[in-house]
Amino acid sequence: MKKFMLLTAVLAILASCGSKDRGELVGVKGKKWHPEKPYGMELIPGGAFIMGKADDDLAGVHDAPAKTVTVRAFYMDATEITNSEYRQFVNWVRDSILRTKLAILADEVGKVPEDGGIGEYAFKDADTANMSVYEKYMFENYTGLGETGYEGRKLNKDVDLVYDTAEYPDEYYTEVMDTMYLPLEESYNGKRTWDVKKFKFQYNYMDIQEAARNRGVKRKDVIIKEEVEIYPDTTVWIRDFSYSYNEPMHNDYFWHDAYGDYPVVGVTWKQAKAFCEWRTINKNTYQKSKRGSAMVNTFRLPSEAEWEYAARGGLQAATYPWGGPYTKSDRGCFMANFKPVRGDYAADQALYTVEAKSYDPNDYNLYNMAGNVSEWVNASYDPSSYQYTSTINPNVNDEENTRKIVRGGSWKDVAYFLQVSSRDYEYADSARSYIGFRTVQDYMGTQVTKNGGDK
């Protein structure tokens, strides 16, 4: 027994000698954290504000009674997500699916890079034992092809895809590409069109709210798998306006570079959430491959409280992001893109949408928080929700309630819907020519506050 106690004492002394903490409770020290503002975003300092109607509810909806709430700091996109930015998502998914299908066919016919043709697109790493769990996760969840039996195989992205039919490298490549277009009999003007229903984005997420409410639930039961078609619905320009000629917007708005800096529309609430998931994956892939640093916070849709707090720009009891109560400046210029006169959409010098970075930003440097396009937020609509939500980071998002909140008003709305406190909704699976979105990211840390100053 004495020998055991002596050995224990010696081990304790050796452990203490090899440690820099001198036996004191100093905590585990990690790398020093330096917050990095995401590209295109603005830091919104946390704080308290009066949420809801600050003046008379002229529409008599009574769904936004005033209450004081507090939100934590977060980053928000300075502008609505543009056509160009959303096309980056679309092209990423499209190219990933094409590369996966090419690699699978190359494997099936036994082609390798040395063979040329489709062999150049063969899987880069057939041995999954050398891949990390994170790499396998990254390569298993985005293709939209369902289970293929090739999960965990690394795609070869060093070779450019070929879209010109005259330059297809071989018949196998042609076979894969041909499956992704609409049939010839559905083409016109000598141009084949992608079959957009075949381009889907798959991702998994954990329903943390459900897991927290039901402690006995198994982890696998709260991991949700989503599959979403990613192309915007361009037909909204026709369907939203009966007996109206809007074919040019249908044909060109999302595709043509002339509209690259305009806000994307025709996306559902589910597509907006899928975009957020992709943006997170895209950033994390870069972080891991180039910097080897930790994963970034997820990008997401803002809560309703976050959106209104950001829209107010630090102004308490304001009617509009610029203050109010007027929609014109002291020079007689309209402050936002909306429908100021009945039937006269061009009175504000904009017939449809305008570029995302138009008009003056609010005091948080956010553009078009009123007008241009309404914006999806991560909340479901309940007219009485303000009466029972928490006063800290309030949010209501009932998965069974498909009525999702849109905020800010749009180019086709009257001034009432531009008010920072006005609430509206649309169904989660609906797409409109006047609804877009912007994303947010949580700020790591709590020291940035608006009301009490920086701590």
Automatic annotation (TrEMBL):
* GO molecular function per UniProt: formylglycine-generating oxidase activity
Q: Does the keyword Lipoprotein apply?
A: yes
Tell me which InterPro entries the record gives. Answer: CTDL_fold, Glid_motil-assoc_lipo_GldK, Sulfatase_Mod_Factor_Kinase, SUMF_dom, SUMF_sf
**Which keywords does this chain's UniProt record carry?**
Lipoprotein
One Pfam family, short name: FGE-sulfatase
**Species of the source:** Flavivirga aquatica
The answer on whether this UniProt entry bears the keyword Lipoprotein reads yes
Source species, domain of life: Bacteria
PANTHER family, A to Z:
FORMYLGLYCINE-GENERATING ENZYME, SULFATASE MODIFYING FACTOR 1, 2
Q: Which NCBIfam families match?
A: GldK (TIGR03525)
Q: Which SUPFAM superfamilies match?
A: C-type lectin-like
Report domain Sulfatase-modifying factor enzyme-like positions.
41-440
Q: What is this protein called?
A: Gliding motility lipoprotein GldK
Gene3D superfamilies in the record: paralog of FGE (formylglycine-generating enzyme)
